[in-house]
Write a structure and sequence with these properties.
This protein is of the alpha/beta class. It has three domains: about 140 residues, Globins (Globin-like), CATH 1.10.490.10; about 100 residues, Translation factors (Elongation Factor Tu (Ef-tu), domain 3), CATH 2.40.30.10; about 110 residues, Rossmann fold. It is built from eleven helices and eleven strands. Strands 9-8-7-10-11 form a five-stranded parallel beta sheet, with helices on both faces. Helix 2 crosses helix 4. The two termini are about 35 Å apart. Its main location: cytoplasm. InterPro entries: FAD-bd_FR_type (IPR017927), Fe_red_NAD-bd_6 (IPR013121), FNR_nucleotide-bd (IPR039261), Globin (IPR000971), Globin-like_sf (IPR009050), Globin/Proto (IPR012292), Riboflavin_synthase-like_b-brl (IPR017938). GO terms for molecular function: FAD binding; heme binding; metal ion binding; nitric oxide dioxygenase NAD(P)H activity; oxygen binding.
């Protein structure tokens, strides 16, 4: 991909303009979700061509509007300096790159946001508000465009590439692993453990005509020029993958990206992995690489039931093969087993790298505990939009 497209001129806001926008922060906090929900409705009706870049399930649940509202609020609070939210911004950049977001889509979002503010706030969204907001939005949009252009340059390929399904393996009663290889024979590079790939699914449903974008973690190292993803049946697309996808089917795939990557240069000798349910998928290559590097690895693995626990045999064998270097701690909700913070009391931040992924409530509980314990570099990410609740 070429150099970043210059769609907006970055013009620093004046102190007066910053104060004006920040004075509206309470309004954005209170009405933000209404504004963003209105924005998406307006945008999808006015610019239907962008629908295929959005997960419509996250629209129906309200998760995507909630995340965008949180993003706008945080941006307004940090207009002087984005450094405190740089991690959050970086996750947005990588998700945009994984989905193949183009610079030309930013004016569409900007115009839709302005219309939504006018509809929700009425006279409060006057000419002065619109002028200052457009200036601030343009600064943020061009910053993201520039950052995304830098990421695109590092990816293994541009755009989406057709992959063929080569194998389907049932890992649990509701989890299927999908093996895929490039149709054109492109040689896949080794992954960085923790990366994910984005897909554009046509699920052949007469009631759902839009292409469905989804992101899935790569659940093992590249072998035989194949990626593997492992998908739990919990939604429209995952149901299609588990019940209707067939060997030989073709699906477009974007190059890997990710924020929760294995830290191969860390000098710490121990790794603790906390995985809830299907959050185990990116942890598999992370665990394997950590063991190859000679680290002691502890896995705290929570599932609803034995029947819904993927990779049970794999981890059992891994524990046997590694002579005490890998310790598996299983927690099954149906058996009244639950990971407790007391199980993690021994984790010394100076000795352990810690990885965390699972349902939002699970992540919130253990992130709060681990950060309070002094784990300042906790490695975690979110399935779906970056969640403001965690």
């Amino acid at each position: 991909m070429s150099a970043a497209k210059q769609l907006f001129k970055i013009v620093p806001l004046t102190p007066t303009e910053i104060n004006f926008l920040q004075s509206l922060a309470p309004v954005v906090k209170e009405h933000g979700v209404t504004v963003t929900s209105t924005m998406y409705k307006y945008m999808f009706q006015t610019y239907p061509e962008v629908r295929s870049y959005f997960n419509m399930t996250n629209q129906k649940t309200g998760r995507q509007p909630k995340v965008l509202a949180f993003s706008l609020y945080q941006y307004i609070l940090h207009l002087n300096d984005l450094t405190p939210i740089s991690g959050f911004v970086n996750q947005i950049v990588l998700k945009h790159c994984g989905l193949g977001i183009k610079p030309d889509q930013y004016p569409v979002v900007g115009e839709s946001l302005v219309q939504a503010f006018k509809m929700v706030l009425g006279e409060a969204a006057d000419e002065h508000f619109v002028e200052v907001f457009k200036k601030a939005y343009g600064n943020l949009a061009q910053t993201l465009i520039d950052a995304e252009a830098s990421v695109y340059k590092t990816l293994a390929w541009e755009e989406f590439k057709d992959f063929r399904v080569t194998k389907l393996v049932k890992e649990a009663e509701d989890v299927t692993s999908v093996y895929l290889t490039p149709v054109d024979g492109f040689k896949l590079k080794p992954i960085i453990p923790g990366e994910y790939i984005s897909f554009r699914w046509d699920i052949h449903n007469p009631d759902i005509t839009d292409i469905q974008p989804r992101e899935y973690s790569i659940s093992q190292d590249v072998k035989e020029n194949e990626y593997r993803i492992s998908v739990r049946d919990i939604g429209i697309v995952s149901d299609y993958i588990n019940k209707k996808l067939q060997v030989g089917d073709i699906v477009p795939v974007h190059a890997p990206v990710g924020t929760m990557k294995y830290d191969s240069i860390s000098k710490k000798g121990k790794v603790a992995v906390l995985a809830g349910g299907i959050g185990i998928t990116p942890m598999i290559p992370i665990i394997e690489h950590a063991l190859k590097d000679g680290k002691d690895v502890e896995l705290y693995y929570s599932n609803r039931s034995y029947q819904s626990e993927p990779f049970r045999e794999f981890f059992s064998n891994l524990e046997k093969e590694n002579n005490g270097k890998f310790k598996l701690n299983n927690y099954i909700s149906a058996e009244n087993q639950k990971l407790q913070v007391k199980d993690l009391e021994h984790i010394n931040p100076d000795e352990y790298d810690v990885y965390l992924l699972g349902p939002v409530a699970y992540m919130h509980e253990f992130k709060t505990y681990l950060v309070g314990k002094g784990v300042s570099d906790l490695k975690m990410e979110f399935f779906g939009p970056t969640d403001p609740d965690c």
